[in-house]
Specification:
Largest sheet: 7 strands, antiparallel
Number of strands: 9
CATH topology of the largest domain: Small Protein B, Chain: A
Distance between the termini: 42 Å
Number of domains: 2
Helix content: 25-40%
Radius of gyration: 19 Å
Length: about 160
């Protein structure tokens, strides 16, 4: 039986704090170089993206502080360090563009979510500009106002029925 395509796009790990701390301007889909049984741990949802960040070194992009817990039924090929730097697979032009933009003041490369597509682990990374405290308050106020509008519309539809 074939898997549903929507199910294969379900996020295995998500960085919910990224949209709170950054204005995400561009997103890129990158492959990840994994070792041993890390993919099995990812598929069971044992990854943490909260403190992760990406850096560019020697024309390659690496993801740091991504915590993938060791697989319990793993063998000797399990990586010993769960937070090791993992190489991301992007085109050279994309890496050069990200490197140039991340060198600007206030910009950084932020991982957003990890998912599996066609059997391969993919990560969605974004170029984010850091929010100031007043920006965070403003976006929270907009979110609350939108929630109140939706609530009022639902109530109005209930009364109309």
């Amino acid at each position: 039986m074939a898997k549903n395509k929507d199910q294969s796009q379900k996020p295995l790990a998500q960085n919910k704090k990224a949209s709170h701390d950054y204005f995400i301007e561009e997103t890129y889909e990158a492959g990840m170089v994994l070792m041993g049984t890390e993919i099995k741990s990812l598929r069971t949802g044992r990854a943490n993206l909260n403190d992760a960040f990406a850096t560019v070194r020697n024309g390659e992009i690496f993801l740091n502080n991504l915590h993938i817990s060791p697989f319990e039924q793993g063998n000797r090929h399990n990586p010993t360090d769960p937070t090791r730097a993992r190489k991301l697979l992007l085109h050279k032009a994309q890496i050069a563009k990200l490197f140039g933009q991340s060198k600007q003041e206030g910009y950084s490369i932020v991982p957003l979510k990890i998912y599996v597509r066609n059997g391969y682990a993919k990560i969605l990374i974004g170029l984010g500009k850091g929010k100031k405290q007043y920006d965070k308050r403003e976006s929270a106020a907009k979110r609350d106002a939108q929630r109140d509008i939706q609530r009022a519309l639902r109530e109005k539809q209930k009364v109309a029925r």
